[in-house]
Design brief:
The complex is a heterodimer.
Chain A: H1 33-64, H2 69-73, H3 87-95, H4 98-130, H5 135-144, H6 150-163, H7 171-178, H8 181-192, H9 196-204, H10 209-220, H11 222-238, H12 241-246, H13 255-262, H14 268-300
Helix pairs in contact in A: 3-14, 4-7, 4-8, 4-11, 5-8, 9-10, 11-14
Chain B: H1 20-23, H2 38-66, E1 69-70, E2 78-79, H3 83-90, H4 92-125, H5 130-142, H6 145-155, H7 162-169, H8 181-209, H9 213-221, H10 226-253, H11 258-263, H12 275-285, H13 289-313
Antiparallel strand pairs in B: 1-2
The chains are: A mainly alpha, B mainly alpha.
Main location (chain A): membrane
Protein name (chain A): L-arabinose transport system permease protein AraQ
InterPro entries (chain A): MetI-like, MetI-like_sf
């Protein structure tokens, strides 16, 4: 993994020995025949439960989206479609104008990731490395916004966006998203762990502070930047209320807002196909980066 | 993924742990720094100052001012004192919305807290494939909420929905789920739990893996069994995470919006109108931004008081030594 190469304040071994892991039951117990049997049963039970509750509804959505209306409504339902109706997908794709809405979502998400990363990394670089006078106060004021729940702020924020004339403008989503205290906090915490000697050395070698950021700090922070970026992308793909408020023009809306708007008025088989198609990008993204996302979430959410 | 290893010693705790001062890492004490610069520092801070200033700090103040005004964008804003707050108290739906929000929050706390904890405990015991299990459990969290909600809306259909098909297959009576005031909120809790349990579970998994194996070994030497290890080691070691996630759960669930908006629209008969939905309706259905802002301020105060009480009640427990 290329982004693993530099770890601030860590021994430089390419592969750290795996730390000892164990659960509540002692590893020895699992070696006994009874423990082995118990472990296997627990494993099977877990697989069954998770398969049923986590995968079950998704499986049902996926298989049902290939059925025709008659098969969708029949009781008892079928496990697999009798005939796989790919035309549900073709119709949903063209009639619901999915390409337009998925493109809208991509534009919104891409801009959000960009503004979030730029604002958070410049702010964190300033607060962690440049450390201007009064930076502590600014950091405190930024962190304080973590305690402001989104529901409390969306009405005055909407009024502000309206006064700025940003309704039906993607900036109305990109800019407020940039005010993410959590990103600033995460990046500052990461930048704080970069050895100061390295930064001082870059200054002695004649790097400007911009070059220090570009050539030392950012490359060393690739892992955390990628996690912040992926999470911002996924969150943006999932967002609903705010895009619905600031993008009343249907032609600009992301796919979530469009689906909620038309949900009842579309034939079920087309709706299901549209649900699947609008989930595919974010699910694929998750499956590609799942190890990084899951480890990252475990790390940052504490 | 070594860089993101949750075992790394943390200089500080979650941002939710306390005030701003606590969240900041200790200042490095050194006289000479070649990288310090106040002027450039503020140049680099400028984007954040603008973003937070215009889209975070200013709207907070704006919201408080709005709550004392009559605003409809057609005419000038008029100062009306506490009239907006008085109007809220006269609105019977506002009180109903509080009751619904409280019921939803209480139910989803019980279900949404226990289910992920048990799952995390079991996943942590599994020797093989733990990572795959965690990814599978997280999959519903990845789906866009609108997709999950429209899917479940179909499941909840009294005639052709999967929920009733399953009930009938086991010889039960079909329910009216989100269309019956009695079962509407539990149905929302069911969807909400399905869509979010993976996220809480990941936090618990990380916390479980952070427990030092030596503690269990010492307990085993002292003859502790499975239950006593859970009671005396696992739970005490996780208490900080448990308290924080409980609080975040509480704050998050009191703001529930998308579930009732997409599934029920607040119905049937106001049975699922939550406080966030009510704020939305004031502002964007009735064009009464003053009332919406006042309701937001009330929600903010309630959340602040709830948080304060919670932290006060758990202060003896929340020692920071996980």
């Amino acid at each position: 993994m290329t982004t693993d190469q530099i770890r601030p304040r860590r021994p430089q071994s390419p592969r750290r020995p795996r730390p000892l892991e164990r659960g509540i039951v002692s590893p020895l117990a699992y070696r006994r025949p009874r423990g082995r049997l118990g472990g296997a049963l627990v494993w099977l039970g877990l697989a069954a439960v998770l398969g049923l509750i986590a995968i079950g509804p998704i499986y049902w959505m996926l298989t049902s989206s290939f059925k025709d209306t008659q098969e969708l409504l029949q009781t008892p339902p079928t496990w697999l479609p009798a005939v796989w109706h790919l035309d549900n997908y073709v119709t949903a794709w063209t009639v619901l104008e999915l390409p337009r809405y998925i493109l809208n979502t991509l534009v919104i998400a891409g801009g959000t990731v960009l503004t979030e990363l730029v604002v958070a990394s410049t702010a964190a670089y300033s607060l962690s490395v440049l450390r201007p006078r009064g930076g502590g106060v600014v950091f405190g004021a930024i962190i304080a916004t973590l305690f402001i729940p989104a529901t409390i702020i969306f009405v005055p924020l909407f009024v502000t966006i309206r006064d700025l004339g940003l309704i039906n403008n993607p900036l109305a989503i990109w800019l407020p998203a940039a005010a993410s205290a959590f990103n600033v906090f995460l990046l500052k915490r990461f930048f704080d762990q970069i050895p100061r000697e390295l930064l001082d050395a870059s200054r002695i070698d004649g790097a400007t502070r911009m070059q220090t950021l570009r050539l030392i700090v950012l490359p060393m922070s690739k892992p955390i930047l990628s996690v912040v970026g992926i999470l911002a992308l996924m969150a943006s793909w999932k967002s609903f209320l705010w895009p619905m408020l600031v993008l009343p023009d249907p032609r600009l809306q992301p796919v979530s807002v469009m689906l909620a708007r038309i949900g009842e008025d579309v034939e079920l088989k087309f709706l299901l196909a549209a649900l699947v198609m609008s989930s595919i990008p974010v699910v694929v993204l998750f499956l590609i980066f799942q190890r990084r996302i899951i480890d990252g979430l475990g790390y940052i959410q504490r | 993924m070594a860089v993101l290893d949750e075992r790394r010693p943390r200089p500080d705790r979650a941002p939710f742990a306390g005030g701003a001062g606590q969240a900041a890492p200790p200042e490095r004490r050194r006289r000479l720094s070649l990288t310090r610069s106040t002027g450039l520092g503020y140049v680099f801070l400028a984007p954040a100052l603008v973003a937070f200033g215009v889209f975070s700090w200013f709207p907070i103040g704006r919201g408080i001012v709005l709550s004392f005004q009559s605003v409809n964008f057609a005419t000038e804003s008029v100062w009306v004192g506490v009239e907006n707050y008085a109007a809220l108290l006269r609105d019977s739906l506002f009180l109903v919305a509080w009751r619904n929000t409280a019921v939803f929050t209480a139910l989803s706390l019980v279900v949404g807290f226990v289910v992920p904890l048990i799952l995390a405990g079991v996943i942590n015991e599994v020797r093989r494939g733990g990572h795959v299990f965690r990814a599978i459990a997280y999959l519903p969290v990845v789906l866009p909420p609108v997709v999950s909600l429209l899917l479940w809306k179909w499941f909840f259909d009294p005639d052709v929905g999967l929920a009733n098909t399953i009930l009938r297959a086991f010889g039960g009576e079909g329910l009216r789920w989100i269309y019956d005031p009695a079962t509407a909120i539990p149905s929302l809790v069911l969807v909400d739990t399905w869509a979010s349990f993976g996220s809480a579970m990941l936090i618990y998994c990380a916390a479980l893996r952070g427990i030092a194996p030596g503690l269990y070994e010492a307990a085993e030497l002292d003859g502790a069994g499975f239950v006593r290890k859970i009671v005396h080691i696992t739970l005490p070691q996780m208490r900080y995470i448990l308290l924080v996630t409980l609080l975040l759960h509480l704050i998050g669930n009191m703001q529930v919006f998308t579930e009732p908006y997409v599934l029920t629209g607040g119905g049937p008969n106001g049975a699922t109108t939550t406080i966030a939905l009510q704020i939305y309706d004031y502002a964007f259905r009735y064009n009464d931004y003053g009332a919406a802002a006042a309701a937001s301020v009330v929600l903010g105060l309630v959340l602040a008081v709830a948080t304060g009480l919670y932290l006060w009640a758990t202060r003896r427990w929340s020692g920071n030594d996980n």
